[in-house]
Amino acid sequence: MTIQEPSADAVPLMGCPYKADPYPLYEELRETGPVHRVLFPSGVQAWLVTGYDAAHSALNDDRLGKNHDRGNDRWRARASIMPEPQHSQLQVHLLHQDPPRHTRMRRFVTDAFTPRRIEQLRPRFQELADSLVDALPESGPADLVTGFAARFPFQVLAEVIGLPPELAARFDRDWGKVVQPVGPTDPGRPLYEARLHGLQSYIAEVVAHKREHWEDDLLSRLVVARDRRELSQEELDSMIFQLLVAGQEPVTNQITTALIALFRNPDRLTRLREDLSLLPPAVEELLRYDSAFELTTWRFFDQDNDLHGTRVPAGDSVIISLCAANRDPRRFPDPDTLDFDRSPNPHLAFGHGIHFCPGAALARAELQIALGTLLARLPGLHLAIPDEDIEWIPAVLGRGTNHLPVGYDRRR
């Protein structure tokens, strides 16, 4: 095997054209090899894995660890990771841990997200979705992000984890932007730090409430685990942080990417509206077609290693493009076509291996209920702005839009 040396010319992953449609670039990269040197807006250079087989292998590669302590000085200098002391207090969650610590921590959350429990809660989720549609204007236009997509996943999450209504009502979605940290000299730094402190205070309030008002729910069980010294304070706070942010924002974004894909494929939209029994396979295909989790979080080798023919130095960041893998024609015939009949459909939208998303069953149910409810109750649903005017979020790892203006004939 020929070992490829690091390229001096890293491919930039930034800018409005890239965020609007990254797939032509991913196709170009896939055709020239599975691993590429890329540049993020922060100045971080990383190794991007693109093809399906390479991505699947990397997601299951136990040489690649997630703990930030593995990162080298080059990565740390520009990674814009959360500042101290908050990094040590809020970043000790599952996405940044390796076995055995990851194994120990993950076991506290899995029971809350089992497919059986999610199915039992479906009627309640449907009630929440219908209530939000009831509050939309009688006829369009409306913004489906502020009116539905940004609210439904958090309401569902609160039900699943046991966040009481009075605290759920006070959660500020803007706090979720702390996963997009800025450097100390950035003009947005004061706002970023204000969000960070606001979220920390909120998490402390949640913990105090659950300690005083114990119920048989996930948040209460996590607090009890801390009191029994089965979790550290930092692990507890970080896991609540992960639940509140990663547990809702990706679903918000996935609702928007799914709707945009349907608007761009009106024949599929019509077919789904006329036959809602197609929702399960349609959701799987929409997850494959344009995943809200575009890229995974950092992984690192603890020593220089070969990654599919490329020498990757120890501590350099390795990122896996789930979107590029899910459009690989060697795994998915005609990958740029939205095909509800695609079977099998082994997409990687929820990752794979030990870091497979524990909330996958919940996300699937939310997407099925959200799309089914919107299509059934908003006849004539369509995009109310030109496609080119969609403003994609500038997030490094995710895809979605903060606004989705739509029109519809009436509200049923």
TrEMBL record:
Swiss-Prot/TrEMBL keywords: Heme, Iron, Metal-binding, Monooxygenase, Oxidoreductase
Asked if Metal-binding is a keyword of the record, the answer is yes
Q: Which InterPro entries did the record assign?
A: Cyt_P450, Cyt_P450_B, Cyt_P450_CS, Cyt_P450_sf
| CDD domains per UniProt | CYP107-like
Q: Which domain of life is it from?
A: Bacteria
| Family the entry assigns | Belongs to the cytochrome P450 family.
PANTHER family cross-referenced by the UniProt entry: CYTOCHROME P450 YJIB-RELATED, P450, PUTATIVE (EUROFUNG)-RELATED
- Name this protein carries in UniProt: Cytochrome P450
Report the source organism: Streptomyces coacervatus
The taxonomic lineage of its organism, from the top, reads: Bacteria, Bacillati, Actinomycetota, Actinomycetes, Kitasatosporales
